[in-house]
Write a structure and sequence with these properties.
By secondary structure, this protein is an alpha+beta fold. It contains 5 helices and 9 strands; from the N terminus they run αβββααββββββαα. The termini are far apart.
Length: about 200
């Protein structure tokens, strides 16, 4: 592979990490849909689509994109263009600004958005890497998506840090022990509620 080719396609695989600022679809010189990744102040063209990268990243920790979207919708309600927890352990969330099926969809990491401002019918987004990007989205619409992504992160983080009912059962005092009576049946009826 020549030097020129290595510059165009830097990577054949990529997993989403905390330093991902955003990613978007871009065609390479051979007409293949790839993903342009902005990671810190560096840019990479990856020989995978954005949706494939999301799925690869989720598969790496035992999940998949379909399940992540379903989980996000169960928390946020049934919405289109739902944000996704790409790594719930590291609390990495990405949100699309248009349908993920569209080739030019941009996926943003809300942690790297410093400021947004209207620029006509578009939104100028200042990023944590001291760069900015102008997107085809009205300010209100973009900020709403950003807020929903932050809400998903917050709820997921709170739920992940709360003790589960399993932990509560493991730490409580010893209660009733189920045992068989003379007829060979378990004594579940001792727990039955009395009906008045």
């Amino acid at each position: 592979m020549g030097k020129e080719m290595r510059n165009e396609i830097d990577l054949d695989c990529f997993l989403v990490a905390k330093d991902l600022v955003f990613m978007m679809g871009e065609y390479d010189r051979y007409g293949r849909l790839c993903a342009r990744i902005i990671k810190g102040k560096k840019s990479h063209l990856v020989n995978r689509t954005c949706v494939q990268i999301l799925n690869d990243s989720l598969n790496c920790i035992g999940y998949d994109l379909k399940g992540a979207i379903k989980g996000a919708r169960s928390i946020l309600g049934n919405r289109n263009m739902c944000p996704v927890m790409v790594n719930p352990y590291q609390i990495i969330c990405l949100f699309p600004i248009k349908s993920p099926q569209k080739e030019d969809c941009i996926w943003f990491n809300p942690d790297h958005i410093v400021k947004t401002k209207a620029y006509g019918n578009k939104t100028l987004i200042e990023l944590s890497n001291n760069q900015s990007i102008l997107v085809d989205s009205k300010l209100y619409s973009f900020n709403n998506k950003l807020q929903i992504a932050n809400q998903l992160k917050q709820i997921s983080s709170q739920r992940g840090n709360q003790p589960t009912s399993m932990n509560l059962h493991l730490t409580r005092k010893k209660g009733h022990q189920f045992s068989k009576d003379k007829t060979g049946r378990y004594n579940f009826n001792e727990l039955d509620e009395k009906i008045a």
